[in-house]
Input
Amino acid sequence: MVQFRTRNFGHLRSVVSDAELERRWAAVRVEMAKEGVDCLLLYAMDAWAGGGIKWLTDFPCENSFSFACLFPKEGDMALFGHGPVGGTAIPEFAARGIGINKGHPIAPSLGYTDNFIPDECLAYLKQRGYKKIGVYRPTLMPYHFVNYIRENLPGAEIVFANDIVDNVKAIKSEEELAAHMEAIRIHDVIHDALPMWMRPGRLERDITMDIRKAALDLGCEEMNIMIGASYQKSYHVPIFLQNEVLKSGQNLEIVLEFSAMGGYYAELQRMWCIDCEPHPALVHGMSSSYELQALLAGAAKPGVSASHMRTLLLEFQESRGFDKENRIQGHGQGVDLVERPSLVFGETMKFAENMFMSLHPACGDREVYCNACDNFVITKDGAKRLTKTEQKIFIA
Output
């Protein structure tokens, strides 16, 4: 595995080399050629789910000021986004592989700007005579945007192109795995620091804010921190619900999801007890969660369908008397918080070596809710755990 290192491209501080970007572009174009796609159309409004553009350009979209990216079968990309009239969507020093970089003063709340970027995309596509347009993650695109392109591009075929990008994006290069390992390291470091912040009398959100500051200091770009305290059945909640005052005897479930420099995510989830020993039901639930996680990891071998994991999970939960889990029980990670393959019914992707995954199956019943999350890489022998934090219940 290559060593994690940062690189400077003018004022841009990144972990992604020119060679890595060129590898991605070439691999995606191979997939485009198989499907006869002339150009990909991508759209992003945030840095949690807008990883398609981030992955191709090494520049994130934030705060709902959207980007539209056109990735042609040959030549440089075009990027349109929020910016001054006559200006750029992103700084010129950051525009690697981008031949057209154009800004417009737009905002989702300003309806009269709705056509600014679609008109730019239409002009680009018409000038080049592209006839088969692949739309990546159409659910991220505003209804108006998609319809406007379709209605004003007569004679063109618009197809869904998720697999074209995802089949390449899901398998990590050595450089990407090094970035993920740095993200894992930060999770382990912050988890080691949690006892400094957890004590009776503090709000759940107080802990979240301490974690957030530490993560930013360590170079993280984006984060999702969920905490839940309860006397027995604790469940993690987002920050606007983190208003419980911690008390002795409570359980505390903590979920950490940070993206390290470059936007590469990892995830860690552990159970804590505040000034008390864990209840026997909690011990049983957590040990079962780790056992289930190991079962899934052992089965996650190249060629196995990711959706098969859900069958294994439900069989385990039913045999042990736990509630059946109806959420995503694990998923790929990259420059998206959640990406393919996901461990749910409906996933068509099969495991392959060097996929980077989080596995977080839960074991819960009327007494407890227990959840274990660690990061894994798919190898020929199954999923190998990369997280270093000990698998146990912690006491603060």
